[in-house]
Structure formats: structure tokens, C-alpha cells
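Final report, results section. Input specification for complex C-07:
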Amino acid sequence: MISIRDRLIFTGQLLFTLLVAAFLIVPAILSMLAGVTVNYFQGIRSGVTLQWVIQVWELYADTIARSFVIALSALTVTLIVGIPAAYALHVRGGRLSRVVEEIITLPLAVPGLAIALGLLLTYGGFSDFRRSWLFILAGHVVFTLPFMVRSVMAVFAAIDVKTLDESASSLGASPWRRFLDVIVPNARPGILAGSLMVVTLSLGEFNLTWMLHTPLTKTLPVGLADSYASMRLEVASAYTLVFFVMIIPLLVAMQIFADHKRRQGAGR
Amino acid sequence: MTGGQGVTLRVEACGKTFPDGTRALEPITLDVARGETLVFLGPSGCGKTTMLRIIAGLERPDVGGRILFNEVDVTGIPIERRNVGMVFQSYALFPNMNVAENIGYGLKIRGIGKAEREARVAELVALTGIEGLVHRRVDQLSGGQRQRVALARAVAARPSVLLLDEPLTALDAALRERLRVELDRLLRTLGITTIYVTHDQTEAMMLGDRIVVMRKGAIAQIGTARDIYFSPASRFVAEFIGATNIVEAECHDGMLALPGGRLPIQNGASGAVVVMIRPESIDIISTEGAVLSGRVGDVSFIGDRQRLTVSGAAHKPLLVDAPNSLGIKAGDIVGLSVKPEAIRLLAGD
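Structure output:
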């Protein structure tokens, strides 16, 4: 028998949850709706249109493309640097490895603006580098590398990669063969999770990028800020819509992947 | 590197000090004959695994130590070029490969063609009795099956030396016993020079041509199972191998003076001595005319025999193995007889 009190509590909780969800979702929905409204000040009654989205595409297609180039480049670099780094840190162990790990992780704690300032002070003088998108890539690698290293190291810790490595070496495999045949395939869940994280973070990164960009090297979020500041509200909103369309599939993929991994873990 | 089944192995003055200053191994020198199975036996932390890892090439010995395969110095050669086979305690099978791929990995690394590889894998699968499992993923195998795959993988490329690090420890008792027999047969069939590390004395005695008993990074005794069982070099070895009675007593005129009587011994020692008497070498006799007697404490019926504790004979209760047919109960007064040659004098500790 469910008492009235229990039912009241349940209803209360449900209402509260819906309220919080609404608080988060309603602005996003309103903003996206605004992006397809003919005239925001007259409301949705003025009609629905894709003209703003098309305008955004015309104005910012290169920005969006650049964002993806940077995200994929950041992924490439973090894969090439991050996996061997995680392997070395895990297999070596000891205090030095801990210190290096902490240093790699530091960008998570330091504000993006401070990292950007550091990069500007250090490399600002190399004006070709400063002006190219590679400068932003450098910032994104610094910012996303810890996510790759951490998620790969988490897998290494779970599968006793050190003994696997030793057992491959006892069978005659050189360090490079062991890395390719045994280490990387077994670290795949961590590499995938890390990759999704790196791409998503790189696409969405604003603080650091805003400091590092030039008018010719804007990225998706910087372009968003730009459109908010200088375009009519409908265009800015259409931009938000585009941004969501780009980033949400990635977030969903990440979530599905995390669920899949959890289920696998429970099955074992 | 050195080819063929089995090499002579020489460990020369191999010690190991870890970076934090811990002395894991005192400098040890020993020789292993071609095809011999040498077992390192000892409690955890005695340095036996470190010794194995030095022979494997996973650790470097301290300066001055050398490892020789067929009289060739391999100390500076990394494990991947030493042509060893190794079975790890956790088996360390590759989760990203199936059983056949695991077994064939060493052959693939050596550039052996697919057809020859498959033939060799099939041969090993038959030898280790894991037919029907070749396409399984390794996480679908039981503990015993994993152990067999690990062994097949280790010997697939015909290593010069086979190294086994507690290969049966992760299994339950019944399976361990069965696999011990299997492993013994397999090692004899293969004839590879084998180094086997264990803390289990039954395993050591059954599998080892010779046993190295280790203690605190040093060798306590090297010998065959019989040597070590019947003539332990020290009290530590005596207590570590099998059940035993360590008796401390005064010895005068070839007789051991005990609270429950006097026992004749062979050795002409006199003064305070420490001797070892195995439970199975003590006979229960009638009290009449017995030189030594005591009172039965616990009686544990084990099946093939019964193990008694007899108090009052020595300073501490004695363990005695009696035939299972003997009718005896706690509280009985019994006579004990021990053949003089079954009493072993032990060195201090």
C-alpha cells in the first residue's frame, strides 16, 4: 500500500526534477527556436525560416571547417604523444612519473586564459606561428592532452599492462612490436574514450581559443561569441543551433560509449 | 641466439639490490644442466622470483653478476633476444588475441610462415590437451585452461630455457594436483632446461630434479628432493619442507635425554643439540620396554594414516604418523620408538 505521504514525496521530487530540467533546457530550446524564426520580436507567429541558418553557414563555414581541422589535428597529436606517454608513465612508475603526470594534468587546474597568456608570452614573437591556426592547435593540445593520457592510463591500470608487456617481450617481441601488437589493442577502450573527449573539448573550447585567435583564425565557439556581439539575434541563435547540431552527436556517442563500457565491466 | 631444446645455464655471482637499497638477493652462483628442471622454493620475499627475473632478462643483476646460456654471456642481452619461454603467475595471456593467436605469437614474431605456425600450434594444442578451444577468446577460458595456453605459448618457439613463475598458484587445490602431474609429464617430454619458482614444497619435490631452497635472498640448500627431505642442512629447511619435529635436548653418551625417556642416536655429539625427527619415522609401540613414552593428545584421522600429537615425550608435543588401522584415542599412554638413523642433527638455524 503506497501511503499518501509517499505519493506526495514522489510527486514533489518529480516536479522538482522537471523544474530543474526545464531551467536547463528551455533556454536552449528558445535559443534554437529563435534561430529559425523570421522575426524574433514578433515571435514564432512571424513564420519559420532557414534563412538565418543559411546566412550563418555562408558567413562561418570556414570557421566551422577550421574547428574540425583543429579538433582532428589535436586528436592526432594527442594520440601520437598521449598513448606512448601513458605507456611510459605507467610502465616506469616511480616518483618521476608521478611528477610528470601532475605536470601534464596541470592545464586542468590552470584557467584557460592563463595558459593562453603563457603561450602568447612564449611564442608571440614567432609571428608566422602566432598568426596561423597551428597556434590554436598548440593551445588545444596542451588543454586536451591530460584527458587522453588519463583515460589511457586508467585502462593500463585495469589490465596489468606491465605483465602483458613482459610476457610479449619473453616471446621475442621488440618494444615497438609489443606496443603495436599488445599495448595499443588492449588500451583501445581508453583510447576511444579519450579521443571522443579530446574532439568534443577541442570543438567547444572557448577561453583559451578566444585569447589565441586572430580575426582569420576563429573557431566554432569564438565565431559564436562574434555573432552574438555583432549580428542580429536570429543569426546568433541560428549559430547556436548549428553548434548544437555539431556537438550533440559527439556527446551522445560519448555517453553511449561510457554506458557500453560500464555494461562490459559489469558483465566481467 | 642459442638454438635448440635446452641449454646449460650458469648463474654467476648474481645479486640484486633495488634502487631503494633493499637487498633482494645475495650473490648466488649455480649451474643447471641441459634439460634439468631446477626449482626455486621458498617463502614469499625470499628472492626466488627476483632470481627468475634475472635469468629471464627482466631484471639486471648487480654489477659483477653474469648469466650464461651454453657458456655464452647473455647478461647484457634483453629478454626478447634471449630465446626464453616464460609462464607468469597471472598467465598474462593477451586479451586481444584468441587462444591460437596467443600460442602462435612467438612464432609470428620470429617470422615463421602461417602454415608452419598453424601446424606447430596444433601440435601444442594436442600436447597440452586444449583441443576445441583454439578459437576461444582468453576471457572465456577457465583457470586451468589459461594455464595450459600460457604453457603452450611459452614453449611454442622452442625456447632455450623455460621459466615458470608459480604457474599453479592461481588454481584451486584439486586442479593444482592434477595439473602438477600433467606439468611433470610435459616438462619431461619437452626436455627443456627449466627454472620453476614456487612456494609449494609438494610441487617442488614432485617437479624438481633439484631444489634450491631460498631464504632471505640466499640459498639455504641445494639438492634433490630426497636430500632436502631427509638431510636438511638447517632448521629452516627442515621446518619448511614437510611436517617435522624439531627437538632441542641434551645429548650424553650417544643418548638423547628427553622428559619422556632416552633415545639412542647415531651421531656421537654431546651437549645441547637440535635434532629433526619426521612424524612418519616415529613408531607407536607398547609402553612395556619402550625407551620413550608419552600421552596421546589429538588424533586426526587423515585417511591413509592418522596424525597424533604425543605430549610428555619431548619438551614440546611430538607429531607422530600412525597407521590408519591402529586403534588409538586421546589420553592413551603409548611407547615411542625411533630408529637412530632417522634422527638428524641440525645446524643452529
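The mean pLDDT of chain A is 86. Chain A has one domain: 59-267. This concludes the modelling results for the funded period.
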